[in-house]
């Protein structure tokens, strides 16, 4: 599609909303997995401390998560939209773009970065799946926000 | 106690001499009672330094195929307190494969420029699928038991709290690689008898002062520590840390917990402590009794003074070298020997500047 149709304000807004939702959800999810490891070692984490830690991660870990979410969605959503124009199921494809994009991104980063795992919460398959689902929700937000736009964005 | 060192003119002027250049990823310096020194290189080589000159031929007799081929070949070197009687040296190195490895300790008898009677004393478990946070430093306590640091393997940080394996621990071994009967967990169900302390991330510095072991250890983003070891104590990682993960994620909500030993010094932001020594020489009287902590990322040495009241004062040294520093030891004459990191590394001798 022509570039200027991609960078219309509603699409940019939808994209930023998707990235923001994905970042917040994925951050909250990863905090709970890290805290689960703490409680599994026999130390209680009271609700207030859980909330505070989640807040700290929303301020801190989001610095890592937001660029990851932006890059994944920037690469994957155009592909998902292109497929949806031909085959429909826009929500499905946009969600898959976020979720599978996260899997691919983490696999690539873990293979290339000096440390064996960038995000501790993705060490287990349940943590990886949960964060991928958060990214999928971000993709679905984009599909929802662009549902009435033309020029090939809508199905 | 958290402290950030101010950068200022060094408290003592010094001069740096180059003993050797072109070393391949060296890891450790160890002085023998007769004044010779050993330097380990990662491709599985030991080099002797005699009368201040690096010997061109590596020490012979080390078995080939002992070492993994990327780094962490021979890592640390410890010299037996009774070396003059038995000639024993001890080496830690990574064993296994990139997909399944940990640290092994071997013992050998050094005779001239060769080793004999090489035997495996101890192999840390479990085998892990990463080379990160391996630990691997060795030091003899005054009771002639040998301490070995083992890291948390990065991806298994919670294991540092699990007394059933060696990850994230310091271990105490006999000359033969066994657990001494007075180790703190001997005879306790579900524990590993070699454990001396637990709750460590990656200790790459160890020294013994008046019979007490001290370690420097890497945190993640912040939370680097200088710890005074007490038999059986838990140093908290990853339940307790004053740093965060590399991603800025909280590793734990706790910076302290009952039953967990706090660090004597916490370095946040990180200094990446690669070693640890305690200066007792006469060449630099102003530094007597101080800890010296060589740094990799920081490209300098942190001088740490712990006062009688526990107050910590610090100073940055050797930033002018602009080199990642892997190890640092006190020579018998009181000079400081520094080993830079990586390929083409240098062995340096630091002495007071001429008056």
From TrEMBL, chain A:
The chain crosses the membrane at residues 65-84, 91-113, 125-145. Keywords: Membrane, Transmembrane, Transmembrane helix. It comes from the Bacteria. This is Uncharacterized protein. It comes from Pigmentiphaga aceris. The lineage of its organism: Bacteria, Pseudomonadati, Pseudomonadota, Betaproteobacteria, Burkholderiales.
Automatic annotation (TrEMBL), chain B:
SUPFAM superfamilies: Soluble quinoprotein glucose dehydrogenase. Residues 23-349 form the Glucose/Sorbosone dehydrogenase domain. This is PQQ-dependent sugar dehydrogenase. It comes from Pigmentiphaga aceris.
């Amino acid at each position: 599609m022509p570039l200027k149709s991609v960078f219309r304000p509603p699409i940019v807004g939808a994209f930023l909303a998707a990235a923001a939702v994905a970042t917040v959800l994925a951050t909250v999810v990863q905090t709970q997995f890290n805290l689960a490891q703490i409680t599994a070692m026999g130390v209680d984490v009271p609700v207030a401390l859980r909330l505070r830690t989640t807040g700290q991660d929303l301020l801190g870990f989001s610095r890592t998560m937001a660029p990851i979410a932006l890059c994944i969605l920037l690469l994957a959503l155009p592909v998902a939209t292109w497929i949806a124009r031909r085959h429909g199921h826009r929500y499905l494809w946009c969600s898959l773009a976020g979720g599978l994009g996260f899997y691919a991104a983490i696999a690539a980063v873990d293979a290339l970065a000096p440390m064996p795992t960038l995000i501790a919460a993705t060490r287990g398959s349940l943590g990886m799946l949960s964060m991928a689902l958060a990214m999928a929700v971000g993709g679905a937000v984009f599909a929802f926000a662009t549902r009435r736009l033309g020029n090939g964005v809508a199905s | 106690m958290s402290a950030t060192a101010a950068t200022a003119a060094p408290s003592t002027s010094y001069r740096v001499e180059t003993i050797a250049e072109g070393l391949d990823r060296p890891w450790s310096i160890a002085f023998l009672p007769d004044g010779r020194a050993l330097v380990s290189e990662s491709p599985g080589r030991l080099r002797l330094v005699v009368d201040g000159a690096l010997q061109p031929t590596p020490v012979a007799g080390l078995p080939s195929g002992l070492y993994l081929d990327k780094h962490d070949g021979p890592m640390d070197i410890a010299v037996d307190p009774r070396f003059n009687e038995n000639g024993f040296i001890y080496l830690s190195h990574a064993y296994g494969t990139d997909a399944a490895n940990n640290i092994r300790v071997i013992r050998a008898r050094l005779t001239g420029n060769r080793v004999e009677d090489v035997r495996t004393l101890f192999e840390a478990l479990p085998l892990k699928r990463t080379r990160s946070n391996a630990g691997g430093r060795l030091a003899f306590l005054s009771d002639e038991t040998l301490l070995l640091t083992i890291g948390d393997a990065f991806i298994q940080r919670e294991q540092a709290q699990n007394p059933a394996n060696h990850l994230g621990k310091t271990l105490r071994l006999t000359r033969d690689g066994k657990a001494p009967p007075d180790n703190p967990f001997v005879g306790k169900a579900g524990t590993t008898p070699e454990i001396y302390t637990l709750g460590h991330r990656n200790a790459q510095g160890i020294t013994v002062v008046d019979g007490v072991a001290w370690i420097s250890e890497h945190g993640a983003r912040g939370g680097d520590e200088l710890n005074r070891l007490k038999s059986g104590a838990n140093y908290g990682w990853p339940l307790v840390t004053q740093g965060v993960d590399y991603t800025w994620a909280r590793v734990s909500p706790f910076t302290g917990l009952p039953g967990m030993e706090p660090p004597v010094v916490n370095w946040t932001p990180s200094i990446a402590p690669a070693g640890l020594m305690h200066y007792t020489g006469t060449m630099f009287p102003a530094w007597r009794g101080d800890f010296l902590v060589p740094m990799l990322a920081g490209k300098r040495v942190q001088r740490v003074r712990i006062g009688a009241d526990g107050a910590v004062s610090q100073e940055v040294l050797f930033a002018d070298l602009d080199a990642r520093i892997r190890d640092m030891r006190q020579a018998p004459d009181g000079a400081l020997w520094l080993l830079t990191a990586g390929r083409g590394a240098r062995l340096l001798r630091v002495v007071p500047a001429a008056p």
